Amino acid sequence: MLNGVSNNEKMILYIKNMVCDRCKMAVTVALEKLGLHPENVTLGEVKLKEEQLTDSQQQRLHAALHELGFERIEDRKARMIERIKNKIIQVIHNSGQVSQKYNWSDVLAEELHYDYNYLSNLFSSVEGLTIEQFIIRQKIERVKELLFYDELSLSEISWKLGYSSVAHLSSQFKKVTGMTPSHMKKSRQMENTRKSLDDV
C-alpha cells in the first residue's frame, strides 16, 4: 500500500517530528478537520479507522501536516529511526526519572523487536551520529530546560536524568555546549541556546 501500512484493515501513518503530547493533539485535530478518523495516536504513529486514502486526501493530509511542522514517513528505515528517536525523547523528556541503570540497548531492542546492533548501525549510517550521541544531546537539552525553569538543583537534575554525579553531568554538558551548567545558568544565555526537540 503506497499511502500507509495496512494492519488488520486499518491504516497506520508514520509521522516525523511528533515529540510530545501537544504534537499528538495537533495531529489528531488536523486529521479530524480533514474528515479522517484517528483511532489511536502515539508519538510518530497514527492508526486510522480508514483502510486507505484517496489521492486528494493524501495531498490535503500532506499540506496539513507540513503546515504544523510534521511530515509523513514512507521509508521503512526512516520509520525505524523515527521510532528510536521517539522512544528516547519519551523517556528523557516525558518520564519522571531516568535510572542510572537504564539500559538503552535492551529497551530499544525490546520496544522495536530488532537486535540493538542492527538498530545502532542503521541509526548511525542514516543520522551521522550514534544512538548514544543522540541520547546525550537529548539529555543536555533536558538539562537546559530544567535549568531555565530553575526549580531543581544540579544535584536533583543529575539524579533525574540518570547521571552518576553532578561532575559527570557538568563534564558532559560542557563538552556539548562549551560551558558548565552553572555558568550557563548565571549568564542567562539559556533562551538563545535551547533547541526544539526536532532540531536536536
UniProtKB/TrEMBL annotation:
Start and end residues of each HTH araC/xylS-type domain: 86-187
- Its domain of life reads Bacteria
Assigned keywords, A-Z: DNA-binding, Transcription, Transcription regulation
Extent of Basic and acidic residues compositional bias: 188-200
Q: Where is this region: Disordered?
A: 180-200
Membrane spanning residue stretches? none
Q: Which InterPro entries match?
A: Homeodomain-like_sf, HTH_AraC, HTH_AraC-typ_CS
| Keyword Cell division tagged | no
The protein's GO terms of the molecular function aspect are: DNA-binding transcription factor activity; sequence-specific DNA binding
Q: What is this protein called?
A: Transcriptional regulator, AraC family
